[in-house]
Each structure stands twice: as structure tokens, then as C-alpha cells.
Amino acid sequence: MLIRAKNPSGTIVVGYDMVTKFGSDNLVFVETAGDFMPTKINIIKEVNGGYLVARDNFSEKSNLATGAIIVLKRGYE
Fold first, then answer.
1. For the chain, does the N or the C end have fewer beta carbons within 10 angstroms?
2. CA dist., res. 60 & res. 33, Å (int)
3. What pTM, to 2 d.p., does this model score?
4. pLDDT tens digits for range 2-61
5. For residue 31, what are the contacts with CB-CB under 8 A and spacing of at least 6?
6. H or E, element range at 74
7. Phi and psi (nearest 5°) for 31?
């Protein structure tokens, strides 16, 4: 059974496969003009199938990369 609920204001749910752990940071890769930008996220809590995160640096209309991603240190600094 699936129960739908409205997310708290200023939050969005992202799937487990969209989050990459890098050191002590959690990142998503947000699509920009022809590229993907590693973006630090604030995980509020784990929810069914993903994480509820603060929507500080992207919106529900943003395209996020999914799958296994290797983070290059130079690209995140």
C-alpha cells in the first residue's frame, strides 16, 4: 500500500540512487547548461525509497543524475 503525503514546505524527496556520499557530505548532481554540478544536500530524514532533503540549491523541476557516480575531488572543491 502506498500512502501519499505532502512534503513539508521547502523540502523535496530524492531517491537513494541520486545521493552520493563524499566524505561527510551528501551530494546530488544537478544538471546545468551541458554539465552536472555536484551540490551538497541536507538530509532531513529517510523516507520510503529515498531521503527528504532541504530544497536549498535546486527545485523539483531540476534534473538530477541517478546511478553510480564517482566524485572527483577537483570537481567538488
1. N
2. 17
3. 0.74
4. 556 677 788 888 899 899 888 899 999 888 888 888 899 999 999 888 999 998 887 778
5. 37, 62, 63, 64, 65
6. helix 73-76
7. -70, 130
